[in-house]
């Protein structure tokens, strides 16, 4: 199966989402601050001649930020991507991509008009053939260079403000490892100084939308390099797990027989080299990760610090998390209380929702439990278990969205940590995506989860379902209330009639209260359910 997958190495790749588009990583694009490449279909920038999009000035959010980052103009990621480009392709309709050459998530076809919903499945529900194909696809991504994207190996200042581009090639899998690193790296302040309290993908409202986009882009990239348009990321349901159920050679790699910190030689992942794991070294050199190899994947599941993460998350933890009605609260960082996002991310107690950064629960618990490459934020995506884990985290986010049906306004518009306001563009994605664009049900983005699947419904029916379910639960009470109300109404009517008869009818001085025709339309009737 691996040889079959490697046969796709000569496939002509289409554009996809990622980091710096290769066609814009040059002196001309950096000095002009414009990244509006031509679409191959008609040769015009952004496919403008075909109505796909046009080259436009970037519209940056002016909403105030939280106090966590007290600097301005010191980090290339501020007001992303304006340090590098202030004009990019703005795509129309269902088109997207750095040159408007692809379809938005959830659409396909030549004109991106065909809706599609694909299903992500439990990795243990895959057939042997499907599971082996998934492993082969992962390995292919690790060994095939990205045709469309390169990574920055220097800051904009180190590039002499664009006149000395510093970029390099990278393989498809490591492109995503690097993007995760770049979003979460420390700010380099010069000398040996850094600012650590900054993260464009974690510890704030954008945590869940950011990783949702990350997985969608990763999924699409695998579809492209393999030609398998039906590929979806499997998930690992880790609720109530007593150990790492995927940590064996049949799946994601077992333990090395003589070194418990390494993977079994029988696993294809034992030969993988990690990148972007030496944050202190980069900080001391005031340098960016250059994606050079830094050794094998390290993993020693279960031998973690038990005082910080005593166990893996339980079903009860997940259910409590889902019961929280607030998406975000308070400072909107890892100190937030009663926040669904902060509790799911793992900085708040999954039994009280009170912030406790000294403990690592829920999402964080899995990273700490793996006790290796996955346990260090910036380099955690090196371990392929990362995608299985985050797919399941995303499914919990999806359950919360379906249960509470929040309006877009629930996602904070202002005062969140840098990069996390609703209208901020996510670092470091090009094409540009705003946080709020992915605060919506997954089916609108073209995918669903096997264990969450419901029949396809029209939007109005879909809206009514939760209320119909509530009514079904109390139908007996409703029927009883209706009968009781009818009896009371009949009794009152009888008493009123009896009173009128007793008084001998209605005199000319005692008339029913009538509403003049000129006032009739001004009356409003209200009923409370």
From TrEMBL:
InterPro entries: Di-copper_centre_dom_sf, LE_dom, Tyrosinase/Hemocyanin, Tyrosinase_Cu-bd
Keywords for the protein's UniProt record, in alphabetical order: Copper, Glycoprotein, Melanin biosynthesis, Membrane, Metal-binding, Monooxygenase, Oxidoreductase, Signal, Transmembrane, Transmembrane helix
Intracellular or extracellular location(s): Melanosome membrane
Cleaved signal peptide residues: 1-18
GO biological process terms, semicolon-separated: melanin biosynthetic process; pigmentation
GO molecular function: identical protein binding; metal ion binding; tyrosinase activity
Cofactor: Cu(2+)
Membrane topology: Single-pass type I membrane protein
Keyword Hydrolase: no
GO cellular component, one term: melanosome membrane
Stretches assigned to the Tyrosinase copper-binding domain: 202-219, 383-394
Region (Disordered): 287-313
Main location: membrane
CDD domains: EGF_Lam (cd00055)
E.C. number(s) listed in UniProt: 1.14.18.1
Main enzyme class: oxidoreductase
Family note: Belongs to the tyrosinase family.
Protein name per Swiss-Prot or TrEMBL: Tyrosinase
Organism: Grantiella picta
Taxonomy of the source species: Eukaryota, Metazoa, Chordata, Craniata, Vertebrata
């Amino acid at each position: 199966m691996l040889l079959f997958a490697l046969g796709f190495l000569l496939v002509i790749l289409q554009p996809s989402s990622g980091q710096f588009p290769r066609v814009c990583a040059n002196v001309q694009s950096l000095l002009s601050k414009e990244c509006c490449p031509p679409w191959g279909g008609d040769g015009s920038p952004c496919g403008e001649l075909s109505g796909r999009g046009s080259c436009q000035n970037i519209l940056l959010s002016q909403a105030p930020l939280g106090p966590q980052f007290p600097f301005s103009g010191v980090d290339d990621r501020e007001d992303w991507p304006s340090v590098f480009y202030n004009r990019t392709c703005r795509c129309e309709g269902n088109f997207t991509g750095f040159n408007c050459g692809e379809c938005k998530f959830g659409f396909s076809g030549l004109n991106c008009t065909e809706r599609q919903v694909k299903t992500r499945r439990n990795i243990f529900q895959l057939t042997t053939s499907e599971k082996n194909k998934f492993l082969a696809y992962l390995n292919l991504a690790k060994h095939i260079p990205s045709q469309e994207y390169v990574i920055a190996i220097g800051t904009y200042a180190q590039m002499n403000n664009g006149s000395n581009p510093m970029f390099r090639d990278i393989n498809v899998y490591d492109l995503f490892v690097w993007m995760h690193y770049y979003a979460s790296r420390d700010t380099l302040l010069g000398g040996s100084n850094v600012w650590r309290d900054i993260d464009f993908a974690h510890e704030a409202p954008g945590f869940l939308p950011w990783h949702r986009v990350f997985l969608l882009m990763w999924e699409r990239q695998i579809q492209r390099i393999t030609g398998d348009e039906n590929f979806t990321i499997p998930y690992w349901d880790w609720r109530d797990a007593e150990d790492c159920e995927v940590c064996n050679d049949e799946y994601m790699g077992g333990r090395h027989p003589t070194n418990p910190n390494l993977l079994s030689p029988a696993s294809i992942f034992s030969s993988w080299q990690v990148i972007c794991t030496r944050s202190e070294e980069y900080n001391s050199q005031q340098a960016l990760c250059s994606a050079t190899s830094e050794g094998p994947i390290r993993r020693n599941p279960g031998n973690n610090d038990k005082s910080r993460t005593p166990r893996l998350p339980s079903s009860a933890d997940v259910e409590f998390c889902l019961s929280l009605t607030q998406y975000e609260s308070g400072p909107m960082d890892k100190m937030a209380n009663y926040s669904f996002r902060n509790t799911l991310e793992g900085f708040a107690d999954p039994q009280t929702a009170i912030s406790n950064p000294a403990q690592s629960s829920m999402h964080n618990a899995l990273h700490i439990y793996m006790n290796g490459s996955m346990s260090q934020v910036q380099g955690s995506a090196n371990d392929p278990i990362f995608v299985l884990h985050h797919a399941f985290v995303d499914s919990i986010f999806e359950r919360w969205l379906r249960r509470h049906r929040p309006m877009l306004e629930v996602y904070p518009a202002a005062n969140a940590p840098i990069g996390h306001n609703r209208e901020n563009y996510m670092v470091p994605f090009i094409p540009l995506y705003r946080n709020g664009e992915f605060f919506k049900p997954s089916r609108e983005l073209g995918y669903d989860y096997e264990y969450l699947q419901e029949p396809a419904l029209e939007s109005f029916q879909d809206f009514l379902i939760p209320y119909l379910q509530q009514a079904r639960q109390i139908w007996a009470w409703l029927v009883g209330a209706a009968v009781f109300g009818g009896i009371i109404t009949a009794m009152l009517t009888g008493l009123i009639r009896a009173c009128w008869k007793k008084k001998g009818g209605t005199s000319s001085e005692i008339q029913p209260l009538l509403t003049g025709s000129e006032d009739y339309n001004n009356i409003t009737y209200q009923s409370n359910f």
